[in-house]
Write a structure and sequence with these properties.
- By secondary structure, the protein is α/β, with parallel strands linked by helices.
- Helix content is 45%, strand content 12%.
- The protein is built from 16 helices and 8 strands.
- The strands form 2 sheets. It has a 5-stranded parallel β-sheet with strand order 1-2-3-4-5. The protein has a 3-stranded antiparallel β-sheet with strand order 6-7-8, with no helix packed on it.
- The structure holds iron/sulfur cluster (SF4).
Length: 294
Amino acid sequence: MHPEFKQLCRMLHREGIGFWMESNGILVGPEEAAVMKASGLDFCSVSLDGATAETHDHQRAVAGAFDRARQGIGCMVAAGIRVQAIFTLTRENVHELFDVFAVAREAGCSSVKVNLLEPTGRGELMTIGERGLGSRELLALGRRVEAFEAEAGIALHYSWPPAFWSIDRLLRGDAATCGVHQILGVLADGTLAMCGIGRHIEELVYGKIGETPLAGTWLDHPALRELRRLQPAEFEGGCGQCIHASVCFGSCRANTFNATRSLRAPYRLCQDAYNAGLFPETRLRSPIGAAERA
Ligand code: SF4
């Protein structure tokens, strides 16, 4: 949609800045895809929230979005860009989860990422209780997806935290952290924030381009200093007991902050599992965690 999209791609390339993109794919034609590729982009994520037009268009609230997303994927694949389909799980599309793997594979995608619906932005409006799935369902689906990967014919990434990953997946070295310590979000209007979450949470906004010095903000903003001081051992609940905490860093701190207004609060899915006795005991730092929970 940006009128200077192609110029921006070329400028990034000229300046030697690597970039990835996330897109709904619907405005990517052969020309855009060629510019993206020529600008050094070799990976793009495209939302596919259903295996059928009916479901995807309903999830995206745009008629025709499914066909156009697949066209966009086709253009990128033809240009030599690796495309990852992203499927955000809700109660309304879960019946198409396993079908979307075949749709993505046939469209030429190299992988599918299954995202869990987070109560942020539109996710908040979608009222998790009604359209989101419960923690038990999400854990059961994660196990099914990981078991299915060998026959899916495409790489699958179910976005649950590493406490639930199989040993195989841990050994593969899949990225388990969001890299929040290396990120400074710059939003389209110049807002500086923890990440894209700055659109929704004022407390995680640090300033604005043109008004706030960039280097000074990065080095000295009190919220960033607090984030850097925060130790995984200070996390509350299950995250504080988890052997993965130093790498995982409590999954998404931004979404957790949005829900709790605390950077120390545990990640919702893991805490639900911990409370329900579904958290793997072998991923707890000590049996004390299990005893405390009991
Ligand atoms: S308990 Fe917390 S640190 Fe451990 S895997 Fe879950 S989110 Fe990550």
